[in-house]
Design goal:
With about 550 residues, chain A is an alpha/beta fold. Chain A folds into 3 domains: about 5-85, Archaeosine Trna-guanine Transglycosylase, Chain: A, domain 4; about 135-280; about 290-525. The first copy, chain A, has helices at about 5, 90-95, 105-120, 150-165, 195-205, 260-280, 310-325, 340-345, 350-370, 380-385, 390-400, 440-445, 475-480, 490-495, 500-515, 525, and strands spanning about 15-20, 45-50, 55-60, 65-70, 75-80, 85, 125-130, 135, 140-145, 175, 215, 255, 285-290, 295-300, 330, 405-410, 430, 455, 470-475, 490. In chain A, helix 7 crosses helix 15. At the A-B interface, helix 4, helix 6, helix 9, helix 10 and helix 12 of A face helix 4, helix 6, helix 9, helix 10 and helix 12 of B.
Chain lengths: ~550, ~550
């Protein structure tokens, strides 16, 4: 896709509109501007504002989302089959462009500063960790190096919750991670670094306070020492790295089931190790922390055509506010930014950030091609039912979550922001390259260090994470009303004119600070809803 | 590997021996035949029985497991670095050979028949299903089409177990499957058929009695209708196949969370649907069933050098007995048969079975190569510590589980034996092609319809399955003694001369019938240990 073909760098006015009303728009309805619908248009779907000839560009968000597959007189319903998918933006072409610093909207920045000055509570209440990270919770983390131990761990975790946790009221919970990696995998494959790094960084999650217990079997491919939290300055604790043979001083951070005396011995050891950690965790207290230490993630799932005009821009506004206040906001989902990469590249802080953005796009292009597909495999039946014709339209709506500000950094899947780039901590708006799959993106963002996630959805999903609070935002009011005990915010009010992007963004900003401080408990947490962690493993299994 | 180079088709005597004693063999120990050890040899490891020059073939199981990397005088410890990995058997070369029917050992067959005639209880007590399959348990199965619903399902399943299950004493339990598939996946990728078929067949598992409840979100890639149990002859039940748009008569088999009134509505609907099924399941009773209706799987994990001479041959003997009695015994783990494929090809019942065996090997070769690895990525640090120098030695020990009999059929990952091959049910010894990863192999064998699994291990793993009983056999007595509350059988007695392969095989045969009949509860089940299901997805995620 080049500039001429798509107008990629020359935003134009849209030539389609979205049906906002809950029942859609009936045939023969007169719209603003005198257009009369030639068909009934379902809610969230597009209607042509001009006569479109076959091959004419269909414009939404000022971008070409596709080309008319047939004659589409104004007033037509532009359903999926009427839209020809454009080529993805050419990464090499963007790479060849001279770098220009991102255009700054000084008036917008000043407006953000005014909002921040007017908001109280610009600090949040978090748990400070020895490694400099800050948690939003005080949890006992138990991290298996391999799925084989999960059966025993689940039993131990339930027993810890029931018998030990009540004695430690300052500990928020037990998170016994469960994942499908660790053995029967090609541990030295070129892409194996991704799942290994993910697990290592999950074990170092800020909400575990540097106290995660690693549980290994003893004969697995992924030696437990490789994921044990590195704790510089903590004497006698496990070091990251090393193979199966390594038996570092930090062996006390690791329980090996093959070394235990049967099932009874395994449970006894796990209970004892858990209690040691609970005692230490119990002494911890929240303290006031500047926003520059807050790391959150944003994600969308089960999106519809409203997501990109209601929930996601509100999240984007909150992200801009947070970044302006010094916080770190990760957005992700490679296949859902791929078609807007030209827009993101133009926001890169420096040439290195642009290079890294493009590098992650190339990596994923190759990964998908190796499996015989491309980014068009992304949209779901639900996305399409919700009015998203293709991945371009989905992507343009998805990237709205990243706000308008400068993109300060890029993380590969599962990389941590804390010590990335030779000790330079990555702050502001950061692209954390992950798959778009909700549960995989959530897992990888947790590994990257988020202590809270904001999740928008139009179709509705009961998504939740055990390790961190998840604030859920509805893109349309119908789903928010139908699931009152699952949504924390209703961005559908933006579509109906009952709120604005900025108002809802400010509401979300305040809710993020409250949830990160333990003052607000999102709905998913109240019910204890948690998806499994699904680690991204692009390498083969054996 | 050709015949000359490896002696693949001309078994010779071994030129290495295995150190059996628990502490290994000390330096300077005189062995049978007058050989004196030149180094201490750890338990399970190999000692040279002849002088080996660099490049000389190292023979175990009458097969070349590798070549001497250096001068190895007799009495030397043959550790991993002393063994050069041979090439894998050439699939095309085997394919080009004229087919010969497998050699039958009539004396062995007659001895099996004598054993079977002498054994009482040649039937087992199972649950007959409308589709002709027979279960070993009477369970309520709940199968999510997508990971997004897992958080809610887990809460519902705990509530069902606590509040409903006690009212239905004839129902053995609730299995709410948990998997990482269903959305954010390339659903039309060439290899996507594998995970989809796996989930569809898990939902049809014999232990669910055709009553599995499918739970979908509503916008996921994997439309729930595609995995709903097909129930020919059951009026108003869901049909297999169809896409997102399909809303078959069997919608009552499917709960869609997006259609429920919030979290409270989801839980209420799931409880109501569960109770309906529990009422029907409660009426079921075990009945005497001929062994021809029994389908079991065999697997090894955390193997050592004993596995191939104790536990696995005992499993093989039980498999031969079962197959002779008409039962179906699946063995699996492609990378662990790959180096013995010439031996399996010679046991193929007919040219089509041989072709299918080779086809599955080729598929996996390509799959691994696409990820930049080969079958040598299989052995684990634990395998090597246990004396297995490489994948050839591991594979030769692994295939011992399949017994000596004719291989009657081949299943691709997740395919069911019941209706394979145009209605012809596949019986006897069957190769179910799966990855070797324990939890993936277990998942795929369950999808293929096993109602019980036999699992051998030398290093020790607390492996278990929620859907079917798992009998665990130790390959050496040390681990069996150290885990008395996890192992059902100790095959280490074969190494110490306290039992024979045949005796232990017969003991296992009887235990399989008892466990399948609910008369014996294996240790893993008594504790409720269950690994997660991990579906094999060789296609990309998006």
């Amino acid at each position: 896709m080049n500039g001429n073909e798509t107008g990629a760098f020359t935003p134009k006015l849209d030539n389609v509109a979205i049906a906002v009303a809950e029942g859609g728009i009936a045939l023969g309805t007169r719209l603003e501007g005198g257009i009369v619908t030639l068909e009934s248009v379902p809610q969230g779907h597009k209607v042509a504002l001009v006569d479109l000839k076959p091959g004419d560009a269909i414009l939404r968000y000022g971008q070409v989302i596709g080309y008319a597959a047939r004659l589409l007189p104004r007033g037509s319903w532009i359903e999926e089959s009427a839209v020809v998918l454009p080529k993805a933006p050419d990464v090499d072409e963007i790479d060849a462009l001279p770098f220009s610093p991102p255009a700054r909207d000084l008036a917008f920045e000043a407006s953000l500063d005014r909002e921040l000055a007017g908001l109280s509570g610009i600090r949040f209440e978090g748990y400070r960790n020895p490694d400099g990270s800050v948690g939003s919770r005080n949890m006992l983390g138990i991290v298996p190096s391999v799925q084989c131990v999960a059966g025993v761990l689940n039993i131990a975790a339930a027993k810890i919750e029931k018998e030990l946790l009540p004695k430690y009221p300052h500990v928020d919970g037990v998170a016994a991670l469960n994942h499908g990696y660790g053995c029967g995998v090609a541990i030295d494959a070129p892409n194996a670094e991704i799942p290994i790094r993910t697990l290592r960084n999950l074990a170092r999650h800020p909400n575990f306070g540097g106290e995660a217990l690693i549980v290994g079997l003893g004969c697995e491919k992924l030696a437990p020492e490789r994921i044990a939290p590195s704790c510089a300055g903590c004497q006698g604790r496990a070091a990251v790295g090393g193979g199966a043979a390594a038996a570092p001083a930090g062996a006390s951070d690791i329980v090996i089931l093959q070394e235990q005396a049967g099932f009874a011995g395994m449970i006894a050891t796990l209970m004892a190790e858990a209690e040691k950690r609970l005692e230490r965790l119990e002494a911890r207290r929240r303290e006031a922390i500047p926003l520059s230490e807050l790391v959150i993630g944003v994600q969308c799932g089960g999106s519809d055509a409203f997501s990109g005009v209601t929930a996601n821009p509100a999240i984007g506004y909150a992200a801009d506010l947070l970044a302006r206040a010094g916080a770190t906001v990760m957005f992700s989902e490679v296949t859902e930014v791929r078609d807007g990469i030209h827009l993101l590249a133009a926001r890169a802080a420096d040439p290195e950030v642009r290079r890294r953005l493009l590098e992650e796009m190339r990596w994923y292009d190759v990964y998908l091609a190796n499996g015989g597909v491309d980014r068009s495999a992304n949209p779901t039946p639900g996305n399409k039912k919700g009015g998203l014709a293709n991945i371009v339209e989905k992507a343009l709506g998805s990237i709205a979550k990243s706000g308008r500000g400068v993109i300060e950094g890029v993380l590969s899947p599962g990389e941590r922001s804390y010590e990335h780039g030779e000790g330079r901590r990555m702050k502001g708006i950061v692209f954390a390259a992950t798959p778009a799959s909700d549960f995989v993106c959530g897992t990888e963002q947790l590994a990257s260090g988020i202590v809270l996630q904001v999740f928008s959805t139009g179709r509705g999903t009961p998504y939740g994470l055990a390790m961190a609070p998840v604030i859920k935002i509805a893109s349309r009011s119908a789903i928010a009303k139908s699931w009152p005990d699952l949504f924390d915010l209703d961005a559908g009010k933006i579509a109906t004119g009952d709120s604005t992007i900025e108002e809802l963004g400010k509401e979300l900003f305040a809710m993020i600070l409250d949830a990160a401080s333990g003052r607000y408990e999102p709905w998913a947490d109240r019910h204890g809803i948690a998806n499994d962690l699904v680690v991204f493993n692009p390498a083969p299994i054996t």
